Amino acid sequence: MPKITELFFDCDNTLVLSEELAFEACADLANEILEKQGIPDRYTGGQLIKDFVGQNFRGMMISLQSKYKFELEQDELERYVTEEENKVIEKLEAKAQPCAGASEVLQRLYDSKKYGMAVVSSSALRRVRASIKKVGQDKYFAEDMVFSAATSLPKPTSKPDPAIYLHALEYVKKTAAETIAIEDSKSGALSAIRAGIPVIAYVGSYSSDMQEEMGKRLMELGAKILMTDWSQFDKCLKFIESGADSEGPQSSL
């Protein structure tokens, strides 16, 4: 079994508590678009999280167009994507907080020099950088080790497309078997799994009544082990490194 040498971290609600803030801004724009299309439905930030967590705004807009059978002109879509990015960054720079325990784990990993570390996100690069900078995590990741499905690829996409993970693997010159991804959402976990990367499913950012359900969903998708708190990270990492996951996934430690 290849040795694990690279760790890929999702950003939103895995390292930084950003989804709730971001989806507030997304809901305002989504509702504006629906109103212009003459569609009576409206979204709250919480409803958007439930339906589209793990997708970036572009992916959300594609899903909304499909659901409500309308089509945005490309230049109009791009204008909304830019507007959403600016609104979200403004909120993140004011209010973003780290996920409990994440920064302490990153510091320990950084000090150990045992693993390469990168952020692999669906969100726009400016947004990811703003998030990790606000919570003081930017020091753990080299500038070129922050990857965005919305920005880093020749053609913008969103998780669950595995393109951003495949791009990151190619850039760091690692195989999927040498890598572990830490993901909190269905679309994020699927993106990594489709790229062949073992996944630690983190559900600590969900409300206590949602953790069991989300954990079950992520394990059913093919995550190797479930992590409810960052204090469990070392045990989760050891579980995958030991090859124990080849005997089947483990839902708890």
Q: Can you describe this structure in just a few lines?
A:
With about 250 residues, the chain is an alpha/beta fold. It has ten helices and eight strands. The strands form two sheets. A six-stranded parallel sheet has the order 5-4-1-6-7-8, with helices on both faces.
Task: Describe what you observe in this structure.
- The chain has two domains: 6-17 and 97-247, Rossmann fold; 19-95.
- 49% of the residues lie in helices and 11% in strands.
- It has ten helices and eight strands.
- The protein has helices spanning 19-36, 45-52, 57-68, 74-95, 102-112, 125-134, 163-172, 186-194, 208-221, 233-241, and strands spanning 6-9, 16-17, 97-98, 116-121, 146-148, 179-183, 199-202, 225-227.
- The strands form two sheets. Strands 5-4-1-6-7-8 form a six-stranded parallel beta sheet, with helices on both faces.
- Helix 9 (208-221) links the parallel strand 7 and strand 8 (225-227).
- It comes from Penicillium atrosanguineum.
- One of its GO terms (molecular function) is metal ion binding.
- Its cofactor is Mg(2+).
Ranges where pLDDT stays below 50 over 5 or more residues in a row are none
Quaternary state reads: single chain
Number of strands: 8
Tally of helical runs: 10
User: Rough shape?
Assistant: globular
By CATH reckoning, the class of the largest domain would read Alpha Beta
Helix content: 40-55%
Reported by name, the CATH topology of the largest domain is: Rossmann fold
Biggest β-sheet strands, sense, barrel: 6 strands, parallel
> What is the structural class?
alpha/beta
Strand order of the biggest β-sheet: 5-4-1-6-7-8
**Rg from alpha-carbon coordinates:** 18 Å
The CATH architecture name of the largest domain reads 3-Layer(aba) Sandwich
Number of domains: 2
Organism: Penicillium atrosanguineum
Cofactor: Mg(2+)
Keywords: Carbohydrate metabolism, Magnesium, Metal-binding
Pfam families: HAD_2 (PF13419)
